[in-house]
Design a protein that fits this description.
The chain is α+β, with helices and mostly antiparallel strands. It is 31% helix and 21% strand. InterPro entries: Ntn_hydrolases_N, Penicillin_amidase_A-knob, Penicillin_amidase_dom1, Penicillin_amidase_N_B-knob, S45.
């Protein structure tokens, strides 16, 4: 008890954080290239109290010391993943892993190490992040954030100096090196541009003037002569930005006090992120006595809690439908493909020549071409080529390339006392690049905002300035292609925006204090089905268009919960693991009825689908068969032909409906699904958990949940390997879940779960402990208040010093 009493005094007194004694040196951000130098950690220290499942509660006297403890604790759990990411943002993957290997995709869409390095070396050589760090707040990052980054780098480096790496992914590797605060900022910048330049890395690094291009057949989305075909490009852009094809998604719902048992708010956050690599979440509590006290999850390498709660407010994010980029179609100067016309006057492109060191080979040098609008791109992924011809090129505008404010938004949320403070933080920082915000507070308020940093593409501007290509892509996907030859097609500025060329806060879709607000990666339109949001520009998302099955099922369940009332945190927990498959509710009965005619010689298929309980629990029999059928059916049958009753904007949650079993694709999908399972030796009525699992240290752990196409809230996008037994790993899906409310006391009532556990190191005791909880649909009771932390039977205290 003596130790616990001393720790309580240490954490609560503020003035007596005895392990943190020295005054801080002045803030500095310097680039060492990762060699030989690192931010000074002189005098930096923190207290880390570990509770169950390896969750660290980090206490420090100021932001630099808090960053120090956070960097140390993240390194202890994820040093190899972190080191890999720092190699990425310094453009050194080819040096160590070769140019042709691929990245983990966490920090960009680059398909090879060489493409990744060429892009990130270009950012580094241009000093892009240094310029942002030098920009005064609010357009640039705050002093508190800079101190966090400085401390984080020092803490990471201190852990490296004082510990031996046990993770086989990088033990003994010479590419695990000290980092600088600038490296931490570069990583944050990479996260900011994920939806813009990060989506187009191959297109940026591969763009060549026509004289430098080898002869090749026109790409699939281009018409003869290299001009993109508008119809094909529109389809490709729609596919590229479709939520169902993304590796990140999320659900979140906030209930107002009018629906809850005690009149206080409730929040359930269920982000869907990759289970491996550098886009994993990591749990912690960060405390500066008297200044900051927040608990939740951080994306690896970030210094703040991105999704979380404090004593008064809880918030989560969902990936938004706003398109954080646009294209400008350039009219090139006759005879000079590296010069373009604006109002009839030529402007030279700026070459950015980048050299990348390569393992076992000569360095590779390439030139990227930049314009007043941004870099020239040869395409947006393989689906949407944008040929650079003698007359035309395309430049990409990404306003988040000058946005390093996202972590200041998170800091503001961490200190918020109400949803009004959350809204004020969004107005002041304007830092979120590609997510919505859903929040609730202890006073009973609910809040939704699609506050994104988006190009200021109004529908009027798109109508006036779109090229023929843009007239096809903008309505279908929100990707604007503007005429870059006209200065009157510039994006302009809103008076309340912190940077030019983006929408100001007054233009954002917002909904406050309705019984529920929720989002499942569709547009803001049905945030609350009884209060549809309208009036926003197309670039934010669509209005009065079909919703995903996950949105439809979510709205049905959220509305029913709100109408029932008397809600508690336990209701949120039950909602998370209800594992209802909306596709099953809508289509299984129709499929079972039509099955006898479609498969007259195979009554077992009909029986199994008919008997399925319409859930994706681990003990559900028939779920696997229906899942494999539904994937094949939706992949081969056009959406307009899947249902007999089409979508109606007057009934957007209930339509479309009634499975179209007359389409030839129905019988084929059933036949192929049954044959696939039998060929793999899997019984058609096998329990889902027998064939949907992950393996950790030799232990097979069954997992529940279902795919995007089934519409399951508890989303699981698994990896199919018939020879290995079915779904043998999870690629992405449910990650850090939090169910949060308040009961009038000083401590929030919070339950959390990190589906893939805290550490990717197989030698860690926290490599799979929460994964087993997830398999059993059990939760972690959050220890937020001091008395709860100090009562933890797993309490372990580490005092970390520079």
């Amino acid at each position: 008890m003596h130790l616990r009493t001393r720790l309580k005094h240490l954490a609560l007194s503020g003035a007596a954080l005895a392990v943190v004694t020295a005054s801080l040196p002045g803030a500095a951000v310097a680039d060492s290239g990762g060699r030989g130098h690192h931010p000074s950690d002189r005098g930096l220290s923190a207290v880390i109290r570990y509770t169950e499942y390896g969750v660290p509660h980090i206490v420090a006297k100021d932001y630099a010391n808090l960053g120090f403890g956070t960097g140390w604790a993240q390194a202890a759990d994820e040093v190899c993943t972190l080191a890999d990411g720092f190699l990425t943002v310094n453009g050194e993957r080819s040096r160590y892993f070769g140019p042709d290997a691929g990245t983990d995709g966490s920090l960009s869409s680059a398909t090879t190490n060489l493409s990744s390095d060429l892009y990130f070396r270009g950012v580094k050589d241009a000093g892009s992040v240094e310029k942002l760090l030098a920009t005064p707040a609010p357009a640039g990052p705050s002093g508190d954030l800079k101190e966090l980054m400085r401390g984080w780098a020092a803490g990471y480096n201190a852990w490296l100096r004082k510990n031996r790496i046990s993770d086989p992914a990088c033990a003994g590797a010479d590419w695990v090196r000290p980092v600088t605060a600038l490296d931490v900022a570069r990583r944050g910048h990479a996260v900011s541009v994920l939806g813009g330049q990060g989506r187009a890395v191959d297109g940026i690094t591969g763009a060549r003037p026509p004289a430098a291009l080898p002869p090749a057949a026109p790409p699939s989305a281009a018409a003869p002569g290299g001009v993109p075909d508008p119809a094909a490009a529109a389809a490709a852009a729609r596919e590229l930005f479709a939520a169902e094809n993304a590796t990140m998604g999320s659900n979140a719902v906030a209930f107002s006090g009018t629906t809850t048992a005690n009149g206080r708010g409730l929040l359930l956050g269920n982000p869907h992120y990759p289970w491996q690599g550098g886009r994993r979440f990591w749990q912690s509590q960060q405390t500066i006595p008297g200044e900051l006290n927040v608990s939740g999850a951080s994306l690896l390498g970030t210094t703040v809690v991105n999704i979380g709660f404090n004593a008064k407010v809880a918030w989560s994010h969902t990936v938004a439908t706003g398109v954080p980029l646009n294209l400008h179609q350039l009219t090139l100067t006759p005879g000079d493909p590296t010069s373009y016309l604006v109002d009839g006057k030529p402007e030279r492109m700026a070459p950015r020549t980048v050299t990348v060191p390569v393992k076992d080979g000569a360095p590779v040098t390439r030139t990227q071409w930049w314009t007043r609008y941004g870099p020239v791109v040869g395409g947006l992924g393989a689906q949407l080529p944008l040929p650079w011809t003698a007359t035309t090129a395309y430049a990409l505008n990404d306003p988040n390339a000058v946005n390093l404010r996202g972590s200041d938004t998170a800091l503001g949320f961490a200190k918020a006392r109400s949803t009004r403070d959350v809204a004020e933080t969004l107005r002041r920082t304007q830092g979120l690049p590609w997510v919505n915000t859903i929040a609730a507070d202890s006073a009973g308020h609910s809040f939704f905002s699609q506050s994104q940093v988006l190009p200021r593409i109004t529908d009027e501007l798109a109508e006036r300035c779109s090229t023929p290509l843009g007239r096809a892509t903008y309505p279908s996907s929100g990707v604007a292609v503007l005429d870059g030859s006209r200065s009157d097609c510039a994006l302009g500025s809103d008076p309340d925006a912190v940077q030019p060329g983006v929408f100001g806060p007054a233009r954002m879709p917002v909904l406050r204090d309705t019984p529920y607000v929720g989002n499942s990666n569709d547009s803001a339109w049905l945030t609350n089905a009884d209060r549809p949001l309208t009036g926003y520009e197309r670039i934010f998302g669509t209005i009065a268009t079909p919703r995903s099955l996950r949105t439809r099922g979510g709205v049905e369940d959220m509305a029913a919960m709100a109408e029932r009332g008397g809600l508690t945190v336990a209701d949120l927990q039950r909602r998370q693991f209800a594992n209802r498959a909306p596709a099953g509710d809508m289509a299984a009965a129709d499929a079972a009825r039509a099955c006898a005619s479609a498969l007259p010689g195979d009554p077992e298929v009909c029986r199994v689908i008919g008997d399925w309980d319409r859930t994706v629990n681990t003990d559900s029999r028939g779920a696997l068969l229906f899942d494999r059928f539904w994937r094949k059916f939706t992949a081969t049958v056009k959406p307009a032909e899947q249902w007999k009753v089409p979508f109606s904007a007057a009934a957007p949650v209930r339509t479309p409906h009634t499975l179209n079993t007359a389409t030839p694709g129905f019988a084929k999908a059933l036949t192929d699904a049954a044959a696939e399972l039998r060929a793999a030796g899997i019984p058609l009525d096998a329990p889902l958990g027998d064939h949907q699992f992950v393996v950790r240290n030799g232990e097979r752990i069954p997992v529940s949940g279902g795919t995007e196409s089934l519409g399951v809230w508890n989303k699981t996008e698994p990896v199919w390997n018939a020879a290995g037994g079915g779904y043998v790993e999870v690629a992405h899906g449910t990650s850090h879940v939090q169910a949060v409310g308040w009961d009038g006391g000083r401590c929030p009532v919070a339950r959390t779960l990190l589906s893939y556990s805290q550490s990717s190191n197989p030698a860690s005791p926290h490599h799979s402990d929460q994964t087993r909880l997830y398999a059993g649909e059990r939760w972690v009771t959050s220890r937020f208040c001091e008395q709860d932390i100090l009562r933890s039977p797993a309490l372990r205290v580490v005092v970390v010093r520079g």
